[in-house]
């Protein structure tokens, strides 16, 4: 059984992945513009089915696991996000949007709901995100969400045939609470 939170925003519902999501997820994850700074080169329907199947039995907030959520509108799946529970108090985020639905604020809106869940419901202390240093839309997204760029790692990762740079972004619970109180 696929378990996990259902998070609602003005325009979106974030929910655990379902088997029917495999088609749309493969559709956008296999696009070169989407894959460019991600861990995959290609993403087939079978890869997407494995991603969904791997979520079976995942218990949210278990250290060492990823919880994948579908980002949906009334029209269906527009993207997905991953919550990586690093330890009891810290989590890492990843997010992917179908290019047909980028540039509308969906990623920021989705991740604000995820941050409310992580800092609010789950009481996390710190949330981080690692981006390829060339991935400007991802850096802009985390800066928009109030994350601090804490590190620029230089040629630290072997990525798609060469050494690449990464940024580390982070946000603390007290910063999230302060902004929520404004
Ligand atoms: C990273 C990624 C999710 C960012 O998507 P995005 O669409 O740029 O981000 P948002 O959904 O928050 O949208 C913000 C844009 O929508 C615009 N926008 C339009 N309507 C808006 C609204 N109602 N509310 C907020 N923003 C709106 C903003 O002005 C902004 O545009 P700009 O970038 O031209 O300034 C996307 O580029 C992506 O999926 N990339 C491929 C996967 C990837 O590399 N992921 C990163 C791994 S960590």
How would you describe what is shown here?
There is one protein chain. The chain has 182 residues and is α+β, with helices and mostly antiparallel strands. It has a single domain, classed as Gcn5-related N-acetyltransferase (GNAT) (Aminopeptidase, 3-Layer(aba) Sandwich), CATH 3.40.630. It is built from 6 helices and 8 strands. An 8-stranded mixed sheet has the order 1-2-3-4-5-6-8-7, sandwiched between helices. Strand 3 and strand 4 form a beta hairpin. Helix 1 packs across helix 3. It is globular, with a radius of gyration of 16 Å. The protein starts with 6 loop residues before the first strand and ends with a helix. The relative contact order is 0.14. The model has no long low-confidence stretch (mean pLDDT 96). The protein binds coenzyme A (COA). The site of coenzyme A (COA) has 21 residues, from strand 5, helix 4, strand 6 and helix 5.
Reconstruct the topology from this structure.
Blueprint: E1 7-8, E2 13-16, H1 22-29, H2 32-35, H3 45-54, E3 66-73, E4 76-85, E5 90-97, H4 106-121, E6 126-132, H5 136-144, E7 148-159, E8 162-172, H6 173-181
Parallel strand pairs: 5-6
Antiparallel strand pairs: 1-2, 2-3, 3-4, 4-5, 6-8, 7-8
Protein name: Ribosomal N-acetyltransferase YdaF
GO molecular function: protein N-terminal-serine acetyltransferase activity; protein-N-terminal-alanine acetyltransferase activity
EC number: 2.3.1.-
